[in-house]
Amino acid sequence: MLWWSGEYHPAYVILLAVCGSIGGYLWYLAMRWVFQHMHLLRPNDDHA
Predict the structure, then answer these.
(1) 6-23 in b/e burial notation, b at 16+ Cβ within 10 A?
(2) Residue 5 and residue 34: Cα distance in Å, rounded?
(3) pLDDT in tens, 3-32
(4) d(C-alpha 3, C-alpha 13), whole Å
(5) pLDDT for 44 beyond 80
(6) C or N: which end of the chain has fewer Cβ atoms within 10 Å?
(7) Cβ–Cβ under 8 Å, residues 41 and 32
(8) Three-state DSSP string of the chain
(9) Res. 39: pLDDT tops 70
(10) Whether this model's pTM surpasses 0.70
């Protein structure tokens, strides 16, 4: 964690959860894009 006030307020917990979820999803999308461009993943239209 980059910033911590030392207190557990519900607003801090909710903000951390929301920001963490958004950051995790953006990381997932970025890694998926990178792996597709490195040809390590199948294209989306390829149904197995």
Answers:
(1) eeeeeeeeeeeeeeeeee
(2) 36
(3) 666 778 888 889 889 999 999 999 999 998
(4) 12
(5) no
(6) C
(7) yes
(8) CCCCCCCCCHHHHHHHHHHHHHHHHHHHHHHHHHHHHCCCCCCCCCCC
(9) yes
(10) no
